[in-house]
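Anyone opening a protein record will find just a pair of labelled lines. The record below illustrates this layout.
***
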Amino acid sequence: MVTEKVKAVVLLSGGMDSLVTTAIADAEGFALAAMHVNYGQRTWLRELDSFRAICNHYNIEQRLEVNADFLGQIGGSSLTDYSMPVSGADFQDSSIPTSYVPFRNAGFLSMAVSWAEVIGARRIFIGAVEEDSSGYPDCRKVFYDAFNRVIVLGTKPETSIEILTPLIEMQKSDIVRKGMDLKAPFVLSWSCYKSEGKACGICDSCARRLRAFELMGIADPIDYEERPHYI
């Protein structure tokens, strides 16, 4: 007897974390639908290329590319406001960096829940990381636990949707290890906050990614303008 796969929406930015999250969801046997959001970020077109390439790799046919560039109009983040410099990495600094986009993930999840309810998906995967993130408040486990309660209150009674955050307690190096175990195509992913040609190698996202690969003793397969050592 063939059992129908449970459908899941993956929030797929094209970055390393969302790639490995997609690989996990695929390995767990979900029928995947992928959502990508343009929120006015500097590297949107490059991220979109990665989104499409990753979808092709995992044969994800059901896709939604959403325009939410009102977040860019709101501003408040160096990812969307070109007058603000993109900060480099400071692994000892626990303050929230300029790259934080105010309450962004709540908007992403709201759109994902809407789509999931329409297409009959019962899970939403997001590659949030708390342990080794940049201190973003919307990347904490308590935030996703609370949002799961919001879904119950704000959807039809027969709806059953749960947000899953498989990376939430991992270090970045653990994410690289997991991706390698699952043969995730890291070469297709894009993490840089600044550049759309070669990755800059010095922004907070590049630095954390490079350090993770370096800790694992593996060369990151994408091209960088600079490739500093972070350990």
Notes: The first strand starts at residue 7 and ends at 11.
